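2.7 Reproducibility. Because tokenized structures are sensitive to small changes in the input, we list the exact sequence used for L-seryl-tRNA(Sec) kinase, including any N-terminal residues retained from the expression construct. No trimming or masking was applied before prediction.
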Amino acid sequence: MKQIGTLYFFTGKMGAGKSTKAKQYESNFNAVLLSEDEWLSKLYPNQINTFDDYLNYAQQIKPLLKMHIQRILTTNTNVVMDFPGNTKEQRNWLLNIANEINADHQLIYLNISDEHCLQQISKRRLEFPERATFDTPETFEYVSSFFEEPHVSEGLNILEIN
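Resulting structure tokens (single pass, no recycling of outputs):
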């Protein structure tokens, strides 16, 4: 029987530390890390200026990425997805990548307080000035309004980190 890698993906509010944790998982699980921010910035340089732009372009890359990720997993290589799994729809897309090829998965839920997330966003604005227009308390509130807490009933293997 052919062995298949494990798909790791994340959920948590903006500033919860998903990208930082994804890099740790890449190292800890000898995995291929795929970052949505990286893919979008390379494919659509200077074209994502609003949240709606982001949603549009993020949707466009999903079919190609799904096949790419499944091919990697079928080589018995773990994959870490630094893509948002913050809504049921997003998590369902990520889960289907694994389920369609009978790969294991794990959703890491970073259940971090709003106060801590806002502190991290503030720190990130200083470290990465190019993100200053996006990493704001207003954007945090807007993006957080779409956040849906994950549930086992979605068919997910959830590891919750507080």
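The longest strand covers residues 104-110.
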